[in-house]
Amino acid sequence: MAAAGDGISFRDAAREDLPKIVGLLANDPLGSKRERFEDPLPDCYSRAFDAIAADPNNRLIVVEHDGAVIGTLQLTFIPNMTYQGGIRAQIEGVRVDDAYRSRQIGKRLFEWTIAEARRHGCHMVQLTADKTRPDAHRFYESLGFAASHVGMKLYLSG
Asked: Buried (b) or exposed (e) across 38-69, using 16+ Cβ within 10 A?
């Protein structure tokens, strides 16, 4: 694990981070099929950024190393009626630049994110991971996440 003062930091994304964020999302077998990493970026990414930035229950987070964006995730706070009106934190779109894998960046990002969820009063942090990503499953389990539910999705054409 890199030591404090190693140039790693976490922050909310800025609009100028969008090309790097979309590049990270597109840089894997699944992301390459669903993202459009083009120059210029399609307007849909700016609209999504604006919606996330305007919603107090959503945060788009980036990891920086010496000022360069090397990772990202989206953190959403979901108020619930269950758990006596508890708040869940949902993590989506987790990516770390290939050049920084196996350097504890993902672990540090999750530790920071879980601390943010606690600070926000969440009782649970949840995420989904595609069935075709066994390495991601092992990583999340190593952080204490348990595959306690079966997730289902209904994709809507549009």
From this structure: eeebeeebeeebeebeeeeeebbbbbbbeeeb
Q: What is the pTM of this model?
A: 0.92
Q: What angle do CA 132, 136, 137 make, to 5 degrees?
A: 80
- The 10s digit of each residue's pLDDT in 110-155 is 999 999 999 999 999 999 999 999 999 999 999 999 999 988 888 8
Write out the two tokens for 49: 């950024």
CATH topology of domain 8-142: Aminopeptidase (3.40.630)
Please identify which residue in the block is written with the tokens 């609209």. Answer: 47
* 116 vs 112: CA distance, rounded Å: 6
pLDDT tens, residue by residue, 62-100 = 999 999 999 999 999 999 999 999 999 999 999 999 999
